[in-house]
Specification:
This protein is α+β, with helices and mostly antiparallel strands. It is built from four helices and five strands, in the order αααβββββα. The strands form two sheets. Strands 1-2-3 form a three-stranded antiparallel beta sheet, covered by helices on one side. The chain is globular and about 35 Å long.
Length: 105
């Protein structure tokens, strides 16, 4: 089952219902679509700050605390050999968000 494969790759997806996970996976071309599900995946993260070119630069709490990441997370595949830039699998860039959030706690 593909949902279990995604959950195995990023265990925080176990906090989401099947419908919520399908919602994220069906909108992979739009990394901002994950925003509504962040509070269920990450305690203390309400939103991520995206730049105009889709880089994720900050994590924001519900209490409006804003913490800048040491390095931005790029949900877009920046492989110069590709003609068209493509969105990376959501579990890959969310793992980077998780690692950076742990650094900043």
């Amino acid at each position: 089952d593909s949902l279990n494969t995604k959950r195995a790759a990023f265990p925080r997806f176990y906090f989401l219902s099947n419908d919520e996970l399908l919602s994220i996976l069906s909108q992979t071309r739009e990394p901002r679509a994950v925003q509504v599900h962040l509070p269920k995946c990450f305690e203390g993260i309400d939103q991520l700050t995206f730049t105009g070119d889709q880089l994720i630069t900050h994590m924001n709490s519900q209490e409006k605390e804003c913490i800048k990441f040491v390095t931005p997370v790029n949900p877009i595949d920046s492989n110069p050999e590709l003609e068209k830039k493509d969105v990376r699998p959501v579990e890959q860039w969310l793992m980077e968000v998780e690692k950076l959030s742990l650094i900043h706690i």
